[in-house]
């Protein structure tokens, strides 16, 4: 999608601090970090939200979670704890219409979210 900011990050048209990349997914630091560790994990395929996932995307999502488990280990937050968040739609607080999972950690995260 030519007007999608995360597709532009994938295509390196917009710079980002890349944490992980392979042929299917990319992880990079959130530009407005809400915690000492705040990483976004996205599929390279443009999927606009969790609502638009199809059956064929199942393996992609399991791959994302496998890499999340590696990233939290590498970032040193696996044992202290962390949160994986997907904001979906208007009430969910989604602001970028390209599926992404937030990984937050490095501090005590409160619950419930606002
Ligand atoms: P959400 O509100 O769940 O849709 O999350 C979108 C996230 O993308 C926010 O946390 C933003 O700070 C983040 N974001 C927006 N633009 C960029 C960018 N160019 N590089 C890194 N993160 C970004
Ligand atoms: Zn996109």
Gyration radius, to the nearest Å? 14 Å
CATH architecture: 2-Layer Sandwich
Residues in helices, as a percent range: 10-25%
What's the CATH class, please? Alpha Beta
The number of domains is 1
Write a brief structural summary.
The chain has 114 residues and is an alpha+beta fold.
Describe the protein.
By secondary structure, this protein is α+β, with helices and mostly antiparallel strands. The chain has one domain (5-105): HIT family, subunit A, CATH 3.30.428.10. It has helices spanning 5-10, 58-74, 89-92, and strands at 18-21, 25-29, 37-43, 82-85, 101-105. Strands 1-2-3-5-4 form a 5-stranded antiparallel beta sheet, with helices on one face. A hairpin with a 3-residue loop joins strand 1 and strand 2. The radius of gyration is 14 Å and the shape is globular. The structure holds adenosine monophosphate (AMP) and zinc ion. Adenosine monophosphate binds at residues 5, 14, 16, 30-32, 40, 87, 93-96. Adenosine monophosphate (AMP) binds at residues 5, 14, 16, 30-32, 40, 87, 93-96.
Throw out a few tags for this protein.
114 residues, alpha+beta, HIT family, subunit A, five-stranded antiparallel beta sheet, 3 helices, binds adenosine monophosphate, binds zinc ion
Write the layout of secondary structure elements.
Elements: H1 5-10, E1 18-21, E2 25-29, E3 37-43, H2 58-74, E4 82-85, H3 89-92, E5 101-105
This protein binds adenosine monophosphate (AMP) and zinc ion.
